[in-house]
Amino acid sequence: MPDLVIQKAALQGVLSLPKPILRLASGGGAVFQGGRTLDPRLQFLAHHARRLAPLQSLTPQEARPATAQAQRGLEGRIEPGVAVEHLTIDETGEQPIPARAYRPANQDPAAPVLVFAHMGGGVVGDLDTAHVVCSLLAAILRGPVLSVGYRLAPEDRFPAGLDDLITAYRWARVSAGRFGAPAGTAAIGGESMGANLAAVACQELRRHGEPQPVLQLLLYPVVDVASETRSMTTYADAYPLSTAALAWFMGHYLGPGDDPADPRLSPLKAEDLSGLAPAVIATAGFDPLVDQGEAYAKRLQAAGAVVVYRCYDNLAHGFAAFTGVVPAADAACREIAGLALQAIQGRLS
């Protein structure tokens, strides 16, 4: 741990250098693609990440510790005043699900519990992956956040992770009083593949005639694994998510008989998006997924949902993991949490 602290401090020192110097140390001028200019700190990180083995050259078992170690050197600190509780959701009699609850010291008793799914393509990641962002959401929403350690592929392929998130959401909705939140209501959210699970969960709840969450919070979501979009070409080699890495994730997540166009895999493919929860959707400009996140926001809005959409043009996929070294990423996460707070308060007022 001391070595990690030293390395992180050194990286922060380097990334605090003037933008022209950072760009010079990153191979030259600014990175300008698709009408967007990449944040110089992310440009520096991307340039030096090229020396590492690409994700798709690793097995899932090799990728998990590698990605976890990389994130520890980039993420920010847990928000002050947020208490953390480790628990297991096993009251349902289904597969026990590890979870982590975050509660702010100044909790609003009217704030609903937010059930949150970490990123990782359905293959990597765990409760630590969303540790910092969940504490930030709890602090700004002034409500409890339940982070869900859903099952991962290839050991447990689709729909195991989806089933876990829906189970956790149903449990949290009726058990919210355990966290000082109103019972019978909850919000849902996630990052990347976790956002995919959250979006699909809303559609599945509607299909079963269950109440919608008060909000779906989707950060740089994967909502279409069946189609090619312009951004998948423009940002094919983006850092940290490339189209090759995305294909690697899906190759492990999907089983041989799964149809990528199934709305439970690609919620953007659903014919009807009416009656779904209000949404706050945030995308990153330098991300192969940016087009589909925007498309989902537009389709939800066209179907009658209240939607707030933001694209952070200068940032890259997974920016919530960079809050410790990229100030623009930290600012974006705080703005997104503020938008979620406004959306929830507007729904409950």
Query: Approximately how much helix is present in the residues?
Result: 25-40%
Order of helices and strands: HHEEHHEEEHEHEHEHHEHEH
Mean of residue pLDDT values = 95
The main β sheet shows up as: 8 strands, mixed
Which keywords apply here?
single chain; alpha/beta; Rossmann fold; two-stranded antiparallel sheet
Structure report:
It is a single chain. The mean pLDDT is 95. This protein is globular. Helix 5 crosses helix 11 (327-348) and helix 6 crosses helix 7 (193-207). Helix 5 links the parallel strand 5 (113-117) and strand 6 (145-148). It has helices spanning 2-15, 19-24, 40-49, 60-72, 131-141, 160-175, 193-207, 230-234, 243-253, 290-302, 327-348, and strands at residues 32-33, 36-37, 82-89, 97-104, 113-117, 145-148, 186-191, 216-219, 279-286, 307-316. The protein has 2 domains: 2-70, no CATH class; 75-348, Alpha/Beta hydrolase fold, catalytic domain (Rossmann fold). With 349 residues, the protein is of the alpha/beta class. An 8-stranded mixed β-sheet has the order 3-4-6-5-7-8-9-10, with helices on both faces. It has a two-stranded antiparallel ribbon with strand order 1-2. 39% of the residues lie in helices and 16% in strands. It is built from 11 helices and 10 strands.
